[in-house]
Amino acid sequence: MSAPTTDAKTNGKANGKADTTAYTAAEMGPFCQSCGMPLHKPEDFGTSAEGFRVNDYCSFCFGDGVFTEPSLTMRQMMEKCVPFMAEAGIPEVQARGLMEAIMPKLKRWRGPSTAP
Ligand SMILES: [Zn+2]
Predict the structure, then answer these.
(1) Could you tell me which of 81, 90, 91 has the C-alpha nearest to residue 34?
(2) What percent of the chain is modeled with pLDDT above 90?
(3) How would DSSP label each residue in the chain?
(4) Residue 14 Cα, ligand 1 centroid: separation in angstroms?
(5) Ligand 1 center to 2 CA (angstroms)
(6) For labeling, which of 2, 34, 108, 109 is most exposed (least CB within 10 Å)?
(7) 7-15: long-range contacts at Cβ-Cβ below 8 A with a sequence spacing of 24 or more?
């Protein structure tokens, strides 16, 4: 007796549809003011020198009170972020467009440079 092996791939996850609303609607919640990443979980947030949660930056950009890459430019940050967004299902062209739109508005990049 041989049962037919129906190995149909059933995708339970609803992927393929890039949710870009989180990146455009500032009302959606806090964003990292350096890379634009939405901050949802407590561990997403960066930390101050005293070890407290920093609401403005993510843990990738800011830790122990300092930027992890203080000399990074806005352009370099975009180049770093696009591959991550592509991994999240956002086409590169679209990711770049989003970055171009939101990056200059973020606290770290807008206005005169206050880099030490
Ligand atoms: Zn960040």
Answers:
(1) 81
(2) 66
(3) ------------S--SS---HHHH-GGGS-B-TTT--B--SGGGEEE-TTS-EEEEEETTTEETTEESSTT--HHHHHHHHHHHHHHTT--HHHHHHHHHHHGGGSTTTSSS----
(4) 26
(5) 54
(6) 2
(7) 15/89
CB 109 within 8 A of CB 103: yes
Matching residue, tokens 């806090």? 30
Residue 29: its pLDDT value, please?
Answer: 73
User: How many whole angstroms separate alpha carbon 103 and alpha carbon 1?
Assistant: 62
Under-50 pLDDT residues of the chain: 8, 10-18, 21-26, 116
Which residues, in sequence order, are bridge partners of residue 63?
66
The pLDDT value given to residue 112: 64
Ligand 1 mean position, distance from CA 106 (Å):
10
CB 46 within 8 A of CB 58: yes
